[in-house]
């Protein structure tokens, strides 16, 4: 199965978990599960590193009008997805995807499964993450080379829970601080003492590390 097209008619599906389906699996067919009568609200996609690659749920198209051709945005569609777990970091943290998920997604878990080579988030990925205006819970798992958390977390004004797990190189919280909405900050499992110590002074007694 190279796409999700064979599943696209399962309009009552609410949860979908895909594990180790390989790099050839792409998300075509997913949109029909998230819009136009679909009910999918929880998705876990692991082991398909190009699942979201180049996906634009709201593409632009050329529309002719009385004054000539002009590129305009088609009618925007929104998503039903509330929870997402994925290790396709590059694919999901793209502006078209995050814009599509912005009004629905409340929980995002990003995992690397100890794959190396990612020391920091790109500016484009940081900007895309900030589009998730409904996000209430954000988790980072198993980033063995990540040097710092993404900048701009302060702009996630609905965020209530932030978790950092098994990210040993990270020494501190972002320089631009955390959102005022944050209620719980968890730092667990193979994180540095420097980070844990900084977090203990963040907002006691609500902090649990």
Distance from N terminus to C terminus (CA atoms, Å) equals 41 Å
Can you tell me the overall shape? globular
Evaluate the radius of gyration: 18 Å
Q: What is the SS-derived class?
A: alpha/beta
Annotation, overall tally of beta strands: 9
Sheet having the most strands: 7 strands, parallel
Q: Which strand-content bin applies to the residues?
A: 15-25%
| Helical residue percent band | 10-25%
- Numbering strands along the chain, what is their spatial order in the largest sheet? 1-2-5-6-7-8-9
pLDDT averaged residue by residue: 87
Count of the separate structural domains: 2
Reading the helices and strands in chain order gives: EHEEEEHHEHEEEH
| Count of helix runs | 5
Unreliable spans: 61-71, 204-209
Report on the architecture of this protein:
With 209 residues, this protein is α/β, with parallel strands linked by helices. It has two domains: 1-51, no CATH class; 82-209. It contains five helices and nine strands; from the N terminus they run βαββββααβαβββα. The chain has helices at 30-34, 89-92, 95-101, 123-129, 193-200; strands spanning 15-19, 42-46, 60-65, 68-73, 83-86, 107-111, 137-141, 161-165, 184-188. It has a seven-stranded parallel β-sheet, with helices on one face. Helix 3 (95-101) packs parallel to helix 4. It starts with 14 loop residues before the first strand and ends in a 9-residue tail after the last helix. Mean pLDDT is 87; it is low at 61-71 and 204-209.
